[in-house]
Amino acid sequence: MNTPSTNQRAGKRGIFKGRGLIIIGLAGLIGLAAAGLWWYSTPAPPPPPQPVAAPDQKAQMMESLSLTEIEEGDKRWLLNAAQAEYLRDRNEIRIQDIQLEFYGKDQEIIHVQAREGLVNTKKRDLALKGEVTLRQGDFTIRAPEVRYVAKERALVAPEEIVLIGPRTEISGKGLYIDLAQKRLVLKEHTMTKLMLKKGLL
């Protein structure tokens, strides 16, 4: 009976040892591949949510607004607006759908309507735009823009206006209404229309 020599046994152990290394190496490669597949198939985490911007503390929205200006014990004007935005850094209130009453001498009232405007909270001036209409008694004035100057207590319409009376229509520019003195001045006259009674001509 032939007994394997020492070299042959060593050779077999070397072969087994090498095969063990190969098996271990293959197991390592399979583990790395599995780890790589898991990393590839796992979705990336979602990006962090964007920080919510803090509300602007300098602007304040209001659903409606009512203001009354009183000076020296007399009412100067009364304002109602359907919408308003207070711009604190500008000392202004932006207003829409406006109803105004201006009080003249002896508290006579001029009713004003406008689509939009601004209130200067520091100077107490008003700026009105968008189909501005002024009414007092039988007279109506239409203008694209009207400003109220508090220190003069006056209504000013620099652009083209139309003044409509019972039988008169006057067009012009540069309207100035002095509320304290009950005085109306039209600096630039464009046209006057007279509606005469039947049979007068």
Q: Could you explain how this protein is built, in words?
A:
- The structure is a single chain.
- This protein has 201 residues and is of the alpha+beta class.
- It has a domain at 59-194: Lipopolysaccharide (LPS) transport protein A like domain (lipopolysaccharide transport protein A fold, Sandwich).
- The chain is 18% helix and 51% strand.
- It has one helix and eleven strands, in the order H-E-E-E-E-E-E-E-E-E-E-E.
- It has one helix spanning 6-41; strands at residues 59-62, 65-71, 74-87, 92-103, 109-120, 126-136, 139-149, 154-157, 161-164, 168-178, 183-194.
- Strands 1, 2, 3, 4, 5, 6, 7, 8, 9, 10 and 11 form an eleven-stranded antiparallel beta sheet that branches.
- A hairpin with a 4-residue loop joins strand 10 and strand 11 (183-194).
- The longest helix has 36 residues, at 6-41.
- Mean pLDDT is 80; it is low at 1-30 and 32-42.
Break the fold down into its secondary structure elements and pairings:
Elements (H helix, E strand, L loop, with lengths): L5 H36 L17 E4 L2 E7 L2 E14 L4 E12 L5 E12 L5 E11 L2 E11 L4 E4 L3 E4 L3 E11 L4 E12 L7
Antiparallel strand pairs: 1-3, 2-3, 3-4, 4-5, 5-6, 6-7, 7-8, 7-9, 8-10, 9-10, 10-11
Strand percentage: over 45%
* Average residue-wise pLDDT: 80
Order of helices and strands: HEEEEEEEEEEE
Please tally the β strands and state the result: 11
Spans where pLDDT lies below 50 across 5 or more residues: 1-30, 32-42
CATH topology of the domain at 59-194: lipopolysaccharide transport protein A fold
Full CATH superfamily name of the domain at 59-194: Lipopolysaccharide (LPS) transport protein A like domain
Find the structural class using helix and strand composition: alpha+beta
